[in-house]
Amino acid sequence: MKAIIIEDEILGIKSLSSLLERYCPQVEICGTAMDVENGSNLIREVQPELVFLDVQLSGGTGFEILKQLEELNFQVIFITAFSQYAIKAIKFNALDYLLKPIDVDELKIAVEKAEKQLAQKGENPQLKHLVQNQQESNDDPLITLPTAESLEFIRISEIVRCKAEGAYTLFFIQDGRQILVSKHIKVYESLLNEHSFYRPHQSHLINRQYLQRFIKGDGGYLLMNDGSSIPVSKHRRSDFLKWIAGDQLGKIRIVKDQ
Length: 258
Known about the structure:
The protein contains 8 helices and 18 strands. By secondary structure, it is an alpha/beta fold.
């Protein structure tokens, strides 16, 4: 694979290059850059298949490089020191990232995954949607849901609820579709909790937009606009009531079970 490294620390470039040479011989490093301008120019010049892209660069971010490019027809493995904002943006689009210091096993897995994905020619839709989310309002971003057969790009506002299916998560979409994703519901709880989602039970994650009624009783349960009933765990009931407090009390009916 023809690859480049865009990283603003010389030691970082040398360290990654050494790891790739030793553990990923299928990767050929064809150039390096240390800032946004040189990074975007290098991609246009080399036309790489794989880009190792540091999120934080001198005078900008790796995301800015992607915004400047006319075509996004390569795979990207992001490299970052811990940055919750950056990681959340990357996870929203089901893209790979490596935390510094880079773990060899994680590097090998990410490279092997990129190698497989390169068989799909044309633009990288995940990168395209990452850039789109960066340019648009973050109130209703697109989230990438990888299934066994495809990648589904869904607006956050279209997700009614999620249900845990073991290590998988089943998404219920506003138009009636159900999408099974091979990731634990905990992953999506952390991604969606800033978008009016709440996990009232270990097996369920709901979108407040589609919450219709809270039925009091032994623990209580929720009625959603799609007709589903969602249990509320006893130990989460108090926290749930705080979550729907304020202006939401006028919008969500709380009634006693008959």
